[in-house]
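hey so i finally got around to running the thing on that chain from the lab meeting. sorry it took forever, my laptop kept dying and i had to restart like 3 times. anyway pasting the input first so we r on the same page abt which one it is
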Amino acid sequence: MMIIFKNKTLAFFRESRMAEYLKIMSIYQTCKYRGVSFLKFMLSREKDIDGYCEKFLRKRKIIFMLG
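ok and heres what got predicted. didnt touch it at all, straight out
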């Protein structure tokens, strides 16, 4: 009985969640490549990673110039 339940759970994850998982991993890799925090990007609720990166780099440049 437990084996059947476990197999159904794994099949559910594979079929329905794989596309969402791949999207999140793609966003994570993009953030890592561009040097921005994945968590901060997700919490910002921005939809456009390019726009977020521009804002992030602008803030970073201003802080560098002031400090």
